[in-house]
Amino acid sequence: KSTLKRFIADSDQMARIVNGRHFQRLSNLLKDPAVAASILHGGGLDAKNLRSIEPTILLNPPLDSAIMTEEIFGPLLPIITVKKIEDSIAFVRARPKPLAVYAFTDSAPLKRRIVEETSSGSVTFNDAVVQFGVDTLPFGGVGQSGFGQYHGKYSFEMFSHKKAVLRRGFLVEAMLRYPPWDEQKIAMMRHLFRYDYVRFIFTFLGLRR
């Protein structure tokens, strides 16, 4: 609360919601009685004052409420408490894959676990949002949070079609491809599909390995 007061001394310093439709959408998230009961700080709405919404902290709102199942895109911060770090990882894994995971910790083992045990578009430690401004990092979601990545060379690669071109000559024809099929041909094809080139050569030469 003291940090909010220091950053935003009065309402003139607060950014406004982009338009009336989104102001109403965010307002509706807070009007749910079960959600309103979880407001720890803030919750003020001022439609007349250029669509202003007070920065709001919510403690343990219902997990099935709209504010916990939709993307917020506003100054509303739900906080869900857990007993141990394993519970927080399980919480992330039990929901649609997020655009980003932000974790604040100095523990190297925990950082490794978060990277390895969760799936998201990106992971940022000890900060938030800044990865979007790093043009050497790909930015994008996974699953329900988006598809593909952009930024710098990643944008070029993502939006470029890579045409496959294969060229071969007329000198040698692999008769293995054509019938009649016998046990040797079938065995050789199996080895090829398994990328077992050593067994393929042995079978081709009529040898056993």
TrEMBL record:
Q: Which Pfam families match?
A: Aldedh
Where the record annotates domain Aldehyde dehydrogenase, the positions are 12-165
> Keyword Transit peptide, does the record have it?
no
InterPro entries in the record: Ald_DH/histidinol_DH, Ald_DH_C, Ald_DH_N, Aldehyde_DH_dom, Aldehyde_DH_NAD(P)
Query: Under the GO molecular function aspect, what terms does this record hold?
Result: aldehyde dehydrogenase (NAD+) activity
Keyword field contains Oxidoreductase: yes
Query: So which domain of life are we looking at?
Result: Eukaryota
What is an annotated GO biological process for this record, any one? aldehyde metabolic process
Q: Which GO terms describe its cellular component?
A: cytoplasm
Keyword list (alphabetical) reads: Oxidoreductase
Give the family this protein belongs to, as stated in its UniProt record: Belongs to the aldehyde dehydrogenase family.
Protein name listed in UniProt: Aldehyde dehydrogenase domain-containing protein
Task: State the species of origin.
Answer: Aegilops tauschii subsp. strangulata (Goatgrass)
The taxonomy runs: Eukaryota, Viridiplantae, Streptophyta, Embryophyta, Tracheophyta
